[in-house]
Write a structure and sequence with these properties.
Blueprint lengths: L1 H15 L10 H11 L5 H7 L14 H7 L3 H9 L14 H7 L8 H7 L12 H19 L3 H9 L13 H7 L3 H9 L13 H7 L12 H15 L6 H11 L11 H14 L4 E8 L5 E7 L7 E7 L7 H15 L6 H4 L1 E6 L4 H7 L53 H12 L4 E9 L3 E3 L8 H22 L18 H7 L4 E7 L14 H33 L1
Helix pairs in contact: 1-2, 2-3, 2-4, 4-5, 4-6, 8-9, 8-10, 10-11, 16-22, 20-22
């Protein structure tokens, strides 16, 4: 099966992606990659000797050693490395063979030093696999800053030898800013010689300006805007990785559908809102579109309500796009909305006798920002966070359920904000639920990536409620697997770690029974850069989860009615 998949994968790249860029793999190069995929170690020396390029990459930037790592083929990998294959070569997702090998559960145990040495982990799409290592490296980074603060060059050098990032920031402080603040001239000059590349300080001061104020000269060529370096790296994605099919193909599909969305491509916010408007105009008796708030930049937060008007209906909430870079989330949510409406007369009772509330894009400002060249991995909203020099609040840390809190540094990806519901986007959702008269039974928030299901972990939750969440969630996971044989994980062993400030925890705290976070495809190979070809199959898996929950609600209501009739 792996052989067939591997060969198909290469042929698919070379045939399909020729539309977007020239396929440069020679026949020999393709044979070498196939040998790596199939662990045909004995063929590799012969292919290299007869002209195969060991560094040749396919249209996703993957070389033979990448593929050997992808499939865990140690023999093929060893032969390739012996003949000069680079373990630090990055594909177009910023993953190296080293990282891919480490991402396997039975992969080689590489050290944090090696991982830090060979690639910028923060850019790798599979970096979540290395959280323990990243946590360890971050702790060393804090200790490194502390060594700088104390003026201990010898100890600081030890951390640099361990590949600690010389430009690390912790609560807004970096080693160079700490050295400058403490007037440690010798340490500042030492850090500059070590190659510190610092982006701008708060209030827009550069390293050169900050050092000049202390009478320290920064040599030409030393200072580089690190933020610019990262943006330039992200631009490679837009230049090399075409996530969407050609525009002409998209327009053809839009014309066929009669609206802006295709689910064959990732669409901008304007297309998504146009689609929601189309549903209300085309199906006015079923759909209603309302604005529940506005963002920092003035964009509306639009909720689609789908209902047959039955006053006895319970309600279900679905949202997507709370994290800007998770493009598959709004795509899957709008796919679900489209199927609900387009096939309404064919839907079972447990679908028709619910009121559906769908917030397709929870974070419109961030979503639009992530579509601009160089911002593809943006996560937060676009709160300017005045005086910090770093924009954005993580909306999924800004809710106040059983516990609010989290990262307090505005420069961190999971910054929780000044206080719970400080952001207009999260506050709009809270206000909606505070004022609604509907009886909500479910709150489903779609994310990516990882293919797992999260649920509330309040210690005060009854055992019966916990068991119900687990059993329904596990049933949903089985239905998801039945679609495309994709495995989603749903743990029911009390080991799940609570995420402070998450919307799903908050939903449970206000009494919503079925509250889940669904992390969609994939497990990290493409991460946030999930190819557009996977939108529809992923959306169908999301739909299977939703259908399972709606059926559970319907059965709950029927059971409660039976109990009521019996008691009377």
């Amino acid at each position: 099966m792996k052989l067939l998949y591997g060969i198909f994968h290469i042929i698919f790249f070379c045939n399909n992606f020729v539309l977007y860029c020239e396929c440069v793999l020679s026949h020999k190069d393709q044979e070498l990659i196939i040998a790596a995929i199939t662990d045909n170690a004995s063929a590799i020396p012969r292919l290299i000797a007869t002209g195969a390029n060991i560094s040749a990459s396919d249209n996703h930037g993957m070389t033979a050693i990448h593929w050997a790592a992808e499939y865990g083929h140690h023999e093929a990998a060893k032969v390739l490395i012996d003949r000069g294959a680079r373990i630090d070569a990055q594909d177009f997702f910023f993953n190296t063979p080293l990282h891919i090998a480490c991402s396997h559960k039975n992969g080689a145990d590489f050290t944090a030093v090696n991982l830090a040495k060979h690639t910028p982990i923060s850019l790798s799409t599979i970096k979540d696999e290395f959280k323990p290592i990243l946590i360890k490296m971050r702790k060393k980074g804090r200790d490194f800053i502390d060594a700088v603060k104390k003026g201990n060059i010898e100890l600081a050098q030890q951390f640099i030898d361990q590949r600690v990032n010389i430009n690390i920031r912790y609560t807004g402080i970096s080693p160079i800013s700490e050295a400058l603040r403490s007037d440690k001239r010798e340490l500042v000059e030492w850090l500059i010689k070590k190659g510190v590349k610092e982006y701008k300080f708060p209030f827009g001061q550069s390293l050169r300006e900050k050092a000049a104020a202390k009478g320290i000269e920064v040599p030409d060529g030393i200072e580089t805007d690190r933020a610019l370096v990262l943006r330039e790296a992200e631009k490679k994605i837009h230049e090399w990785l075409q996530e969407n099919p050609p525009q002409k193909e998209i327009e053809k599909l839009q014309k066929q559908n009669g609206h802006a969305l295709t689910w064959k491509a990732y669409h901008r916010l304007e297309d998504i809102y146009s689609f929601l408007k189309y549903l209300t105009e085309k199906h006015g008796s079923l759909c209603k579109l309302s604005t529940i708030g506005t963002t920092h930049e003035g964009r509306p937060l639009k909720v689609l309500r789908i209902s047959n008007g039955n006053p006895m209906n319970k309600a279900i909430w679905i949202d997507g796009g709370i994290h800007a870079r998770e493009w598959i989330s709004p795509a899957a949510v709008t796919y679900i909305a489209n199927d609900l409406v387009r096939n309404w007369n064919k839907q079972p009772d447990h679908i028709q006798n619910l009121n559906w509330h769908i917030l397709a894009v929870h974070n419109p400002d961030g979503y639009e920002f992530s579509h601009q060249n160089g911002n593809r991995f943006w996560r937060k909203n676009r709160n300017p966070n005045e005086c910090s020099g770093c924009a954005g609040v993580d909306l999924n840390r800004n809710y106040d359920g059983h516990k609010w809190g989290g990262e307090k540094d505005p420069c961190e990806e999971d910054y929780c904000g000044k206080k719970a519901f400080s952001e207009p986007e999260s506050e709009a959702v809270r206000r909606f639920f505070n004022t609604t008269k509907e009886d909500f039974y479910a709150f489903l928030t779609f994310h990516s990536f990882g293919q797992y299901i999260l649920y509330p972990t309040d210690e005060n939750m009854s055992l019966a409620h916990f068991e119900s969440l687990c059993s329904i969630g596990q049933e949903a996971v089985q239905h998801m697997k039945a679609i495309n044989n994709q495995t989603y994980t749903m743990g029911c062993d009390f080991s799940q770690i609570a995420v402070s400030g998450s919307s799903e925890e908050w939903a449970a705290s206000i009494g919503i029974k079925y509250s889940y976070t669904i992390e969609l495809r994939d497990r990290g190979r493409y991460g946030f850069l999930l190819p557009a070809s996977q939108i529809e199959p992923t959306a169908k898996e999301a739909q299977a989860f939703v259908r399972t929950i709606s059926k559970a609600i319907f059965e709950d209501v029927q059971l409660n009615e039976l109990k009521k009739d019996y008691s009377e």
